[in-house]
Amino acid sequence: MPTLPEPILQEVDFPRRHFVELLLDGEQVSRASVVDVPTRIGSAEVRLGGIGGVFTAEAHRMKGYSSRVIRRCIEWMTNETDYDVSALFGIWNYYHRFGYVACMPAGPSFVLGVKSPVRAYRPFKLRRMHRRDLPAVLRLYAAENATRTGSAIRHARNWKGFPQGAGHKTKPTAVVAVDVRGHVAGYLVHSCHDEGIVVAEAAGRDADACRALLAHVLRAAARRGQERLRLNLPPDSAMADICRAEGCAFNVGFYKGGGPMGRIIHQRTLLRKLEHEFARRLACSACAGWAGVVEIETDLGCDRLAVGRGGVRCVPPRTGGRAASGSASRSRR
């Protein structure tokens, strides 16, 4: 019988992205990318590798090609040494085999009746967002997400605005609320879908700016003959509070084996970056006066956290203990 050709891995580095593909006789049969996404876990900043663009040609599925590509992506992040965690949007019963678990709710959204009598209590001018507004929008975003776990960290040097709306390849419409002094006091990004207008992101300097933005997008929905408006917002955001005050339905989904999923890449460096955040949370808890040692053992190894005097420090494991490692394929949490 003729010998089947062996697929060949090929990799290319782009700015903030590492591309991996599998070639068979020169034809791409499977691919994926690792996108560099600096991310917050509370007040801590960590380096996250987001796996996206996963695809296998239909004629070559169920042959282990995608598994080979994904394992190589994880191996690459591990070898890079400064990736702390990885995340992806998973499908049911697949990505758990690579150490990924569901780590956050999927699609929290607020549904508001379009006839809701939202009004602003201070004059604002609503207009399309311009490039010159980006620094002000970036500051509003940073203030809104200063301690929000899972929010991407945006830097002025590489953030160029909103490439899409509330969904893949959707055209965004971005508006800003400008106060009487000409300062940007809030922004809102929405896109049009079959179901109507959906808000992808919003932030305001204060409650009045949020109300002005909400009133604007409600009027836009009314002009389209839409009865309800959906806003994809964090439940603890200022805009979400305004929605609650106006009366809304809140929907959130949790997936057992799909949706937003994550895994640790380097355990010890992650714990060290989280020391201040652990201390901050401990100070706000009923265990604020507790002192001792917390031992954490996973498939990546064993580490310890020393707790006391209001601080938390990552300390070396006990003599003879299993040191934490950067195993590419066995992390579970």
The percentage of residues in β strands lies in 35-45%
**What is the topology, as strand order, of the major beta sheet?**
1-2-3-4-5-14-6
Span between termini: 45 Å
**Could you state the order of secondary-structure elements as H and E?**
EEEEHEEEEHEEEHEHEEHHEEE
The total strand number stands at: 17
Mean pLDDT: 90
Poorly predicted runs of 5 or more residues: 326-333
Radius of gyration, Cα only, in angstroms? 23 Å
What does the overall shape look like?
Answer: globular
Q: Helix tally?
A: 6
What structural class do helix, strand and pairing data support? alpha+beta
Give a structural overview.
The protein is of the alpha+beta class. The chain has 6 helices and 17 strands. The protein has a 7-stranded mixed sheet, covered by helices on one side. A 7-stranded mixed sheet has the order 8-9-10-11-12-7-13.
Which features characterize this protein?
single chain, 333 residues, alpha+beta, seven-stranded mixed sheet, 17 strands, disordered C terminus
